[in-house]
Amino acid sequence: MLIRMLDFVIVGASFLLRWVVSLGPYSGKNTSPLFGDYEAQRHWMELTLHQPLSKWYFFDLEYWGLDYPPLTAYHMLLCGKIAHYLNPSWVADGSSRGFESFDHQVFMRLTVLAGDLLLLVPAALLLKKKIGKLAYLGLLFNPCLILVDHGHFQYNSISLSLAIIAACLVTEANLSKRLLGAIIFTTSLFYKQMQLYHALPFFFILLGQASKQKTLLGKLTEVGLYGTSVIVTSSVILSPFILFTNDPAAQLGQIAHRLFPFARGLFEDKVANVWCLLHTLFKVKNTIPAEAQLELAALLTLICATLPCLRLLWDQSAKAMANAMTGSALAFFLLSFQVHEKQCLLFVLPALLLADTNLNFVIILTHTAFFSLLPLSVKDSNIGYYAALRLMSYGVIVLLRTEMKRDFTRINKVIPGMLDGRNGGFAPIFGAYFILQEIMLYVTHTAKPPTKYPDMWQVIISSFCCGVFVILYLIQLIFSLKTEKVQRIDLMTEKVLAIRRKNKNLKKTE
């Protein structure tokens, strides 16, 4: 009973934090004519409410045309119906574009909180049971997710929570749970197409699970069951466009075209990925033909995203799955096309599953991702909330100093000298990395960039974060390749943690 009450307090505190951030500015506030992501989501509510299904993916593509999968569209329709019931002017056909009011902001923010309540909280509680308390707390209080969904304004927690729940299920020994995991991951993919970042880990772990069957028929049967579950789920989600439109082929083709706009090219904004960094140094955008850019990006992404997943063929543990999801998504972020800074959530949240055993890696990855969101916060006029969340993250580091020290010992056992080698190994570099971030936060907030280079602060931040992400990807890959040694040390760590939990329980009982 006491534990349940504590969960209520923790979840309540995390929602209070979300609500405080949600009272601030949002993407595109008072910036006509297109406004921002806030208006995009509002417009989709209006669009799905007033336009027939056959026009959803064709309607007025120049003004926030629908470019997310059908589950997002269905969600927007539900929100649109509720908005119309509460105040028709919020989603009035045509005349509501750019609508802004305090009441409407409260409604829009509550729709995001509702998604967190329905999916993020169950995902966090599942992590607590299956992984540990640090993963549970990390998901509830993750500053990146709070800033993007409740500050900038999006619904990332829905697809990400579904993916995390699915990841926990596909590591289970029970086949029915693994099938359910495949179904839930498919729904996450049909909510946001960027869940493709996690498709490779799910493919490899389900293939690895099937390979455990003793006979060839058993292996093929299990693979067939996974494939059938994905196909049936996809068919159900797409069925309205197939059954209730005059030209289903055209509908499905347009949906695919809207979800994957290859024609936009490799670059869209200055973010912390390899291509933006290379363009800053060598003007890649101007020297390599656009078609060759996409081909090169696709090849490198496929190779680098597959490498962290290979371990899943023989190790289907929750930690191996978390490693693969983190490494694969990080590779996609660094090397694929059309990357947005908000997509850092796709490797930050799976990394939380490693928090109880790889704490320092998770802290540095999350901290760097949060730093990469600084330009977005400046753009949204959310710098005050960003600074407050950053201060909170430092408080978390202070509270976890004992666990961090324990994890440093583990790292040195896996790779001797990495942190305490000549000149301190990487430790001084990581110290300098924190200091540089605070300097850039101060400079961004107080000084204007040179007129000749208006994007200078953003370029410096994205280039710095890209360099750190590359190092972290390589570290994660090295650890995944040192399979036997890592597994032995992880097993020892888990035994020690189990003994400590047992001792704590005994003390409580006494």
Assess the beta-strand content as a share of residues.
Answer: under 5%
Biggest pleated-sheet summary:
none
Q: Structural class of the helix and strand makeup?
A: mainly alpha
Low-confidence stretches: none
Mean pLDDT: 87
* SSE sequence, one letter per element: HHHHHHHHHHHHHHHHHHHHHHH
The figure for the number of domains is 1
Number of helices: 23
> Care to count the β-strands?
0
Helix content range = over 70%
Transmembrane segments: 106-127, 134-152, 196-211, 223-244, 320-337, 344-371, 383-402, 423-444, 456-479
EC number: 2.4.1.-
GO molecular function: dolichyl pyrophosphate Man9GlcNAc2 alpha-1,3-glucosyltransferase activity
Pathway: Protein modification; protein glycosylation
Description of the structure:
InterPro entries: Glyco_trans_ALG6/ALG8. It is a multi-pass membrane protein. It is found in: Endoplasmic reticulum membrane. Keywords: Endoplasmic reticulum, Glycosyltransferase, Membrane, Transferase, Transmembrane, Transmembrane helix. Its EC number is 2.4.1.-. By secondary structure, this protein is mainly alpha-helical. The chain has one domain (2-29, 100-509). 71% of the residues lie in helices and 0% in strands. It is built from 23 helices and no strands. Helix 2 packs across helix 3 (70-86). The longest helix is centred in the N-terminal third of the chain and has 29 residues, at 102-130. The radius of gyration is 23 Å and the shape is globular. The two termini are 17 Å apart. The model has no long low-confidence stretch (mean pLDDT 87).
